[in-house]
Amino acid sequence: MSFTVAIDGPAAAGKGTLARALAHYFGFAYLDTGLLYRAVGAGVLAGGDPVAVAQTLDPSDLENEALRTQAVAEAASQVAVIAEVRAALVVFQREFARRDGGAVLDGRDIGTVICPQADVKLFVTASPETRAERRFLELDAKGVVTDRAAILAEVRARDARDQGRAEAPLVAAEDATEIDTTDLTAEEAVMQAITIVAERRRTS
Length: 204
Ligand code: CDP
What we know:
Elements: E1 4-8, H1 15-26, E2 29-32, H2 34-45, H3 50-55, H4 70-79, H5 83-97, E3 103-107, H6 110-114, E4 120-125, H7 128-141, H8 148-164, E5 177-180, H9 186-203
Parallel strand pairs: 1-3, 1-4, 2-3, 4-5
Helix pairs in contact: 1-9, 2-4, 4-8, 7-8
């Protein structure tokens, strides 16, 4: 039986942490849809055509640490405004969402465009300053030299592009439950999400 959890929100709000924890707790499969756009962005940085890269993407292209850089994130948000790129990635995401045993997908348009019928929709937010600080600590822990102001500027630029684009802009679905993680520990946010999903599973 399928059961779909859609998690959307801006960069570094904590979607991945929640998605992984839910997948682990409930035994669902997990797809970080940002990796699809990152893989296309990386292909473009390597000289490829965005639409052609998106149309020939292979799931094995997603298992690549090089997709985690800020340069690739920026390229991802640039290719993500292209309608043909988004269209090329829809079928893979929808099939993943319907898989037996349940699935959790995180991204920007999962509850609005990819899975409007999702069983649970979460919209995860946090202040831009909090998100930039988290991203800074994440990169710092990996030994990447960067500065807080640059990360905050990058987070704001990406928010503006993701929210302002014509195709599948970042917006909460009307029936999404918002979790603002600004003042929550990761554990507290995870507990809230587990409670919401467990309640929905009980009543579905
Ligand atoms: O991890 P982080 O939140 O920084 O980024 P990501 O989720 O890996 O997404 C990178 C970029 O891909 C975003 O800034 C979006 O522009 C785009 N994206 C999208 O348009 N739709 C999705 N479902 C997922 C990502």
